[in-house]
Design brief:
Ig-like_fold, Class_I_gatase-like, eight-stranded mixed β-sheet, Immunoglobulin-like, eight-stranded antiparallel β-sheet, Rossmann fold, alpha+beta
Length: 716
């Protein structure tokens, strides 16, 4: 760059010399060419962005910023002083008021900052360090007095490292860790998962988790309360440091909103008495789900599934039967359709679609209809159940747009599947044992026994393996290939919806000796699991759903709205809006951007930072209609009592912040260390000549003078 700049200046000087020589060495031309050389030289120098730095004494003292943690976890009483347990906060206050600070050098100034809980609860130690460093630029040290427990914002370790880098090591971060690094005795109700809504007369499973933080076995009881009444309880034995996962089954015979509480009694010696109870709300509704069953012939699986769904008053069944021996589509009953629904609004009204032994063949599905089904699943959150049969017609769906939705890869060499002389059996996988779909009995141990006792099957689909991203719930107990045992019951998310693959056509045989006990319980759970997301809030022309359905404090929530006009066409608006009202009554408007114009889908993401129930109201972008949903933000306050102090975090903060860790009784030592640090209250000033207004003005003036000089010299 230097060579190029020098060459450019020499070239300008050379051409100026030639111009002066050609003019007969006139004096006026010499002045013009000198101006030209000067302006070009100045322009080239400015391209190097020259600047001048100098130091100015600010006259300020160097600050020692003491950040005292005053968040919820600091109320934990686990500090032993004179044989008595006192709170971490009490010790932190005594450190901030320690007389040793009075010995601080007069060139230094102590500044106290309280680190309080962030909005919505939680501790943001990293953010507190960042804000303190920005506010006190001349600080020579930051002292963090805390238990190191944080759950909001950036890591304090990362913040300390960035601070040390920005200051060039001038401002160091010291730490004073407080609290015990060991967990205090406690029985903790870790979680209780209550669904957002349920159905009148249908059981609701409420899983819960307990932890024992005592150093000995504990016998406790867990109870379930509906509003103010206890409805169930369980005795639980917890091993030392053990965990227990259990569940209640509850149902309501009437619609409404209920407060469901899971609690365990407070033990006499418990340190934290705030984590033994969780209360959540559930909305119980009258149910009316719409299901479409499509098959190529009235096989046994089709018949028993249709009959079972027709007996359920909460399900509206429509059937489309492509029977090869019938003159037209249908079967003669009121639930049969004469043709595939062409109206987008009619198609979008179905919650679950069962595809049996059908394919893209003459007289059955078309390529266009396969594309519609995919759009329903991915955009409208419609559930899709794939139930192949012995005719092997579903293999023709693989090349269509539905092929990407299959949770498994099919073996094209045996499209009609594999028959067995001896009955095969399902074997639940690890995820299958925990899944709601496979819960044929409320007790996990009994459920395992039920699956082992189910009647077997004599045919299964030509499955090779499960696709990546799929969840295998059950495999063939006996058949396997190079990928392992054959997956027969597999689920997979697809856009906003879900897909389930059932690789056997003999679920109807589960009725043997028990009627619908297991057969319909299984399919009923599948239908409601698939329809759950899209039925969170339903209006005449709109649906509003959100994920996760039980968001935690500060967790990102994805909103999804399906909006139709009153004439049944998808909305073509660019934006839809949802108004949130927080538990404290604060309103906030969230805009949802259009994602898909064919189905009228709008999406957005937001964060909810208060625990409790939010009201979310979706407003139609072009019509005067709304639909509302209740979003229960789960979890206790971000800061909890009884958790171990994070001494590891505090030591790491001091290390990367180029400081030192001091014990609570070492404040005099810390002050002595600070007194030996030279304060640096000066600041650096920088003049950037390449963009200075005076230089710009001088360049303009020089160009003006050059233009005048050329006229004066005779137009050279």
């Amino acid at each position: 760059m230097v060579v190029i700049s020098g060459a450019a200046i020499l070239a300008v000087v050379w051409f100026a010399w030639l111009a002066w020589q050609r003019s007969g060495r006139r004096g006026r031309v010499a002045v013009v060419e000198a101006l030209r050389v000067g302006l070009v030289t100045a322009a080239i120098i400015l391209l190097w962005q020259p600047e001048t730095t100098y130091r100015v004494d600010s006259g300020r003292k160097g600050e020692v910023v003491v950040l005292v943690d005053r968040t919820g976890s600091m109320r934990t009483a686990d500090v032993n002083i004179g044989g008595e347990a006192v709170g971490r906060q009490q010790l932190a206050d005594s450190i901030a008021d320690d007389p040793a600070w009075e010995q601080l050098d007069r060139r230094l100034e102590k500044v106290d900052i309280a680190v309080v809980e962030a909005s919505g609860g939680g501790s943001d130690l990293g953010g507190a360090l960042d804000r303190a460093a920005e506010r006190y630029e001349s600080a020579v040290a930051l002292v963090l007095v805390s238990d190191g427990d944080f759950n909001r914002g950036p890591s304090p370790v990362q913040a300390a490292a960035q601070l040390a880098t920005r200051s060039g090591g001038r401002a160091r971060v010291h730490t004073v860790p407080l609290g015990s690094p060991d967990r205090l005795p406690d029985i903790e109700l870790v979680s209780a998962d209550v669904p957002t809504f349920g159905v009148v007369g249908k059981p609701v499973r409420i899983p819960f988790t307990l932890r024992n933080w005592y150093d000995q076995m504990r016998d406790v009881s867990v109870s379930l309360r509906e509003d103010d009444s206890q409805v169930d309880s369980q005795p639980v034995t917890l091993d030392q440091g053990g965990r227990f996962d259990g569940a209640f089954v509850w149902q309501s015979e009437q619609a409404g909103t209920f407060a469901i509480t899971v609690e365990t009694p407070v033990q006499e010696s418990e340190t934290n008495r705030e984590n033994n109870r969780l209360t959540k709300t559930i909305e119980i509704r009258e149910e009316k789900l719409r299901v479409l069953i499509v098959d190529g012939e009235p096989r046994w699986e089709y018949r028993y599934l249709r009959n079972a769904l027709l007996r359920d008053p909460g399900i509206d069944v429509s059937c489309l039967l492509f029977h090869p021996q019938l003159p037209g589509v249908g079967g003669g009953g009121e639930d049969y359709l004469a043709s595939w629904p062409e109206d987008p609004a009619e198609l979008a009204s179905y919650d679950v679609i069962f595809l049996g032994d059908v394919g893209v063949v003459e007289g059955q599905l078309t390529v266009q209809q396969c594309g519609q089904i995919r759009g329903l699943v991915e955009q409208q959150a419609v559930g899709l159940v794939l139930m192949p049969g012995m005719r092997g017609r579903q293999s023709s769906l693989v090349p269509s747009e539905l092929g990407d939705l299959f949770p498994v890869l099919l073996d094209a060499s045996v499209p009609r599947g594999v028959g067995n002389v001896a009955p095969g059996a399902f074997a639940l996988t690890g995820p299958g044992r925990r899944s709601l779909l496979t819960a044929l009995d409320d007790d996990p141990q009994s459920n395992w026994a039920v699956w082992e006792s189910l009647p077997g099957f004599y045919w299964h689909a030509p499955v090779t393996r499960a696709k990546a991203g799929s969840e295998v719930l059950a495999v063939h107990a006996d058949s396997s290939n190079q990928y392992g045992r054959l997956p027969l019951l597999v689920t997979r998310p697809a856009g906003a919806g879900k897909v389930l693959f059932m690789g056997s056509d003999a679920v109807w045989r589960w009725r043997m000796g028990v009627e619908d006990k297991y057969h319909y319980r299984f399919w009923g759970q599948v239908i409601r699991w698939m329809a759950y997301q899209r039925n969170m809030a339903v209006g005449q022309t709109m649906r509003l759903s959100y994920r996760p359905d039980q968001p935690q404090l500060g967790e990102t929530v994805t909103l999804r709205a399906s909006v139709m006009t009153s004439n049944g066409a998808p909305s073509q608006a660019d934006v839809a809006t949802v108004e949130f009202v927080s538990p404290s009554g604060v309103s906030e408007l969230v805009k949802l951007e259009r994602q898909d114009s064919q189905w009228g889908v709008f999406v957005a993401q937001t964060q909810l930072d208060q625990s409790g129930v939010y009201t979310a109201t979706l407003r139609h972008p072009t019509e005067a209609s709304t639909v509302a949903a209740r979003i229960a933000v789960q979890g206790r306050a971000g800061e909890q009592l009884g958790r171990p102090a994070r001494w590891d975090i505090m030591r790491e903060v001091a290390r990367v912040g180029r400081g030192q860790t001091f014990m609570s009784n070492q404040i005099p030592k810390l002050v002595d260390r600070l007194n030996r640090l030279p304060p640096d209250p000066s600041t650096t000033r920088r003049i950037q000549w390449w963009n200075h207004p005076a230089v710009l003005s001088a360049m303009i003036a020089g160009l003006t003078l050059f233009w005048i000089a050329r006229k004066w010299a005779g137009g050279v």
